[in-house]
Design a protein that fits this description.
The complex is a heterodimer.
Chain A lengths: L6 H5 L12 H6 L6 H14 L5 H8 L6 H5 L6 H14 L6 H9 L3 H16 L5 H4 L19 E4 L3 H5 L1 H13 L4 E3 L9 H5 L3 H14 L7 E3 L2 H8 L1 H5 L2 H8 L1 E3 H7 L1 H7 L5 E8 L2 H6 L4 H7 L3 E6 L13 H4 L1 H18 L3 E4 L2 H8 L5 E2 L1 H17 L3
Chain B lengths: L1 H13 L18 H11 L4 E2 L2 H7 L14 E2 L4 H13 L4 E4 L16 E4 L6 E5 L4 E4 L5 H8 L4 E2 L12 H7 L6 H4 L6 E7 L5 E4 L11 H5 L8 E8 L1 E2 L3 E9 L2 H13 L6 E6 H11 L9 E9 L1 H17 L2 E6 L3 H12 L1 H8 L2 E4 L9 H14 L3 E7 L4 E8 L6 H18 L18 H4 L2 H14 L19 H4 L11
Helix pairs in contact in B: 2-4, 9-11, 10-13, 14-15
The chains are: A alpha/beta, B alpha+beta.
């Protein structure tokens, strides 16, 4: 079976194995079938040597979290993410992965009203204990009502996305308040850009992703305002449109996309000089979402932005190993996902932090389900700012 | 209603919840069905894989050797699992091949004749730490760098540091008697392994060596370290802990002439200084590394030396001054000392990313590992350039100059027809030339299958026969990692043990 992979990208791997300790599934299983090097060797065997696509080959590809920790570890700069996305697209095209119910569920994400209504329904069902939340890796409580999104200016777009807007709109609002505190006028994208398509490309649904990318680009065209993203997975996907669509327009669009921390770190002076803030008296461990650290490679900016606003920021000692969330991965591969998460929770325990700051909704839901106190980094900044305002208003 | 919805959701998702399903798949090779059943009965279904994907990947390591052919793959979690696997394998008349991280470059972990592969990655624990005596017992699947990291809070480390130390395992290091840049001063793996718990081919468990300073009897531990899995399977290793030096100084010396660089290396050693490491990169390698890692190496130098001295603070200062003086007296273009830890890390990053940098230039590489007398480095280097030019190939040289361990990297693209033949021919000439210069086949990567057939070039019939007798005293039936190191005419019943390897490989 030809997987449609670029041969130059495929042969770039020299099988040195330096990726192994950076692969969450290899670290857990110790099996070559669950390693980046092994997966690439199987891709080659299938595409170039006529090897059959057995269930075990499929399984090898399906167990990949797509964290891309292997990419930053690779001395030969093998673009593993592209290879895995291409492989999944070929397998999904042949009907070997991503069954119909999943495709249907993922397509829901594009329909904003349906998604918001469905989420409210789900939130109600959770309150009535109709849904096995723990088993499904869902939050124990979801918002029944969402405060409306509002526009405060036209300096930047704030990308609100799909599930995050439905489940964690509070985070968007906190991010917006922080941006406004830095003197920035914000317009939330809302219905203009329903979904980035990250989960779709991970599931191998290439045609859907392309359609969604075009939809998002059309919704945010007409100006060249920066597009700020507070979800690492979405930011990585939006930044990849240039590669995905291969057009000048898409490349220009991707160049406008910033992770919100990346952008704030460049404008840190404005935020710190405009507003005094008393740091929160907590020790915060920064969890680096893989798509911030290994894909966007801008994870340093989170601690940079956070540092003036909390008492103590600590980094975890696990080399940025994935937490196991992986978008829909925690639902699809619950056993592996939890085993991977145990390493992360152990690292958090070693760090002595009481709060974990995570810049990606998938990671934060997944880690919160393990009983950790997880907040978006800018929620903490927002809290420090509002606490200071409160103290000043009361003359203290 | 609640339970209905919940069970409906469960039904939908249930079909996707496959957990350990894959591990219980029967063998894709019907001939192995009984063997696989017995292995599963012995160690449990989650520790056995016999499907083609698992066997295909267990058939290869980081070398360019691609004719390995694995039988069922087991993932033992304890010494008793290893014992059980060996018993089952031997009942079925099958050999056993161990596997660590598969980072070896000589095909040592490439199984021949469909043996049962023991993948040791699940045995990755630090078993016992005895700081008073400076010893730790570790399981063989523990990653080299993980060990050093686990030791960091105690101010000690595990000294051998192969370039692959972030991924390679202690068991693999023991099998290959691995080296690394810092082995110049500290010695290779053999100097850091005090004892090994080994499961022999008859499934008995023995401990070779002991923790006392003067062991009694023959040094069987010494015979085992470097035996490439042919004397038994290590299941626990007692390693020596080395105190961290209180001071480290890393220097970059650049030269306009390779012979000046080589002479500097000899002069440093002759002056009685034993640096922790002396690494040399030739100009082609410097350029490739700079393009890739921007380590700050001067592109116009014919060769650079990376010299590291460590020890007590005062001694380090004196030693680095001496090194600088020696370099200047050998027409160095520049002598640069790393100002801080960040710069030190950057200089080392250049050296350690050399192989990756090559991969940026060409998709494949073939790496040699011969050792030559230090005094003949210049001559050897010139011969290598000449050989490679004749075969119209590209070579980059990076080596452990302190002990004369060459790593000429032949970079090529295997997709170009005829290239692999030229690479192998050039490789053969480089090996023979190195031996002619009074060198050795392998410094640290092992013989494996890749250099097996060159053994007769280096050792006499009598030598080989005696080595074979030593191996047979551990493994009389050649059931442990058969087909490696010893050239075929000398490997007792290996050939019988290697079932007729079908050329179609795992997928066939």
């Amino acid at each position: 079976m030809h997987l449609g992979l670029n041969d130059d990208e495929l042969v770039a791997c020299v099988s040195c194995g330096l990726c192994l300790p950076h692969c969450p599934t290899f670290v857990i299983t110790g099996r070559d079938t669950e390693s980046p090097r092994g997966r690439i060797a199987l891709m080659r065997a299938v595409q170039n040597e006529g090897a059959p696509v057995t269930d075990d080959v499929i399984r090898s590809m399906e167990t990949c979290v797509q964290c891309r920790g292997c990419e930053t570890a690779c001395p030969s700069a093998v673009p593993f993410g592209h290879l895995m996305e291409g492989t999944r697209a070929a397998l999904a095209g042949a009907g070997r992965i991503t069954p119909r119910w999943q495709r249907w569920a993922l397509r829901m994400l594009r329909h904003r009203r349906l998604l918001l209504a469905g989420s409210t329904l789900l939130a109600a069902a959770i309150r009535l204990r109709l849904v096995p939340t723990r088993r499904l890796g869902l939050p124990a409580r979801m918002p029944l009502r969402r405060p409306p999104l509002r526009t405060s200016g036209d300096d930047v777009w704030l990308f609100t996305g799909c599930v995050m807007d439905a489940w964690q709109r509070d985070v968007h609002l906190a991010v917006q308040r922080v941006l406004e505190a830095a003197g920035v006028g914000v317009e939330p994208t809302g219905a203009a850009a329903p979904c980035c398509g990250a989960l779709h490309i991970h599931a191998g649904l290439e045609a859907d992703t392309l359609a969604m990318a075009r939809e998002v680009m059309a919704g945010l065209s007409g100006d060249d305002r920066p597009i700020l993203v507070d979800a690492a997975g979405c930011g990585a996907a939006l930044k990849d449109y240039g590669h995905l669509l291969g057009t000048d327009e898409a490349r220009a669009f991707s160049a406008r996309v910033y992770d919100v921390h990346e952008w704030l770190a460049q404008h840190a002076d404005e935020l710190v000089s405009r507003r005094q803030a008393t740091p929160l008296d907590v020790t915060v461990a920064v969890q680096d979402p893989c798509h911030l650290r290994h894909v966007q490679r801008t994870h340093q900016s989170v601690a940079e932005v956070l540092r003036p606003f909390v008492g103590n920021v600590v980094t975890l000692d696990d080399d940025g190993l994935c937490c196991g969330a992986g978008g829909a991965y925690s639902v699809m591969e619950p056993e592996l996902s939890r085993a991977i998460r145990e390493r992360k929770t152990a690292a958090v325990a070693r760090s002595g932090a009481s709060v974990v700051a995570s810049a990606n909704p998938g990671c934060s839901l997944h880690l919160a389900a393990a009983g950790l106190d997880v907040r978006h980094p800018l929620e903490l900044v927002d809290e420090a700012l509002s606490q200071t305002d409160h103290l000043q208003a009361h003359g203290r | 209603m609640a339970s209905t919805l919940a069970s409906a959701t469960r039904r939908v998702l249930g079909s996707r919840r496959r957990g350990t399903r894959d591990t219980t798949r029967p063998s894709d090779n019907p001939a192995d069905a009984a063997l696989v059943d017995d292995l599963i009965e012995a160690v449990g279904a989650d520790r056995v894989r016999a499907d083609t994907a698992a066997r295909y990947l267990a058939s290869r390591d980081a070398s360019i050797y691609r004719d390995g052919n694995a039988g069922p793959v087991c993932y033992p979690g304890s010494t008793s699992d290893v014992v059980a696997c060996i018993k089952v394998a031997s009942r079925h008349g099958r050999a056993v091949s161990p596997r660590g991280a598969g980072t070896g470059l000589a095909g040592g972990a490439a199984p021949l004749g469909q043996p049962v592969v023991l993948s040791m990655t699940r045995m990755d624990k630090l078993l016992e730490l005895d700081l008073d005596n400076g010893v730790a017992w570790v399981q063989p699947g523990m990653v080299n760098l993980d060990l050093t990291r686990a030791l960091a809070p105690y101010g000690v480390h595990y000294a051998p540091d192969p370039s692959s130390q972030a991924a390679c395992t202690i068991g693999g290091n023991v099998a290959n008697n691995s080296g690394g840049p810092h082995c110049l001063a500290y010695g290779v793996t053999s100097a850091h392994v005090l004892a090994v718990e080994v499961v022999l081919s008859d499934a008995s468990v023995v401990t070779l060596g002991d923790l006392t300073a003067e062991p009694v009897g023959y040094d069987l531990r010494g015979a085992f370290v470097g035996s490439e899995g042919m004397c038994g399977i290590a299941t626990a290793v007692a390693v020596r802990l080395t105190p961290n030096p209180s001071a480290v100084q890393t220097m970059l010396l650049s030269f306009g002439d390779v012979s000046d660089a080589a002479a500097t290396v000899s002069a440093i050693i002759a002056a009685g200084i034993v640096p922790a490491a002396i690494e040399m990169l030739d100009q082609r390698c410097v350029v490739a590394v700079e393009d890739f890692a921007q380590a700050g190496y001067p592109r116009d130098a014919a060769a650079v030396l990376l010299v590291e001295v460590d020890g007590a603070t005062g001694g380090v200062a004196i030693a680095s001054e001496k090194v600088a003086a020696i370099a200047w007296s050998h027409q160095a273009m520049n002598v640069h000392t790393a100002a801080d830890e960040a710069e030190r890390a950057r200089l080392w990053k250049g050296r350690k990313s050399a192989f990756g940098a090559v991969a940026n230039v060409m998709p494949d590489y073939y790496l040699h590992d011969t050792v030559v007398p230090r005094t003949r480095l210049v001559e050897v280097l010139e011969r290598i350039y000449e050989i490679v030019e004749r075969y119209d190939l590209m070579v980059l040289n990076v080596f452990h100059a302190g002990d004369g361990n060459l790593h000429p990297i032949l970079a090529y693209d295997s997709r170009v027809p005829g290239t692999e033949e030229r690479v192998h021919a050039a490789g053969r000439e480089i090996i023979e030339m190195s031996l002619d210069m009074g060198g050795a086949l392998s410094g640290e990567h092992g013989i494996g299958v890749e250099k097996r057939d060159h053994m007769a070039r280096m050792f006499s019939e009598v030598d080989l026969e005696q080595q074979n007798r030593l191996r047979a005293s551990f493994d009389p039936y050649c059931r442990m990692n058969p087909g490696k190191v010893m050239p075929s005419a000398h490997s007792c019943s290996d050939i019988a043990a290697l079932r007729a390897s079908d050329a179609s490989g795992v997928w066939g």
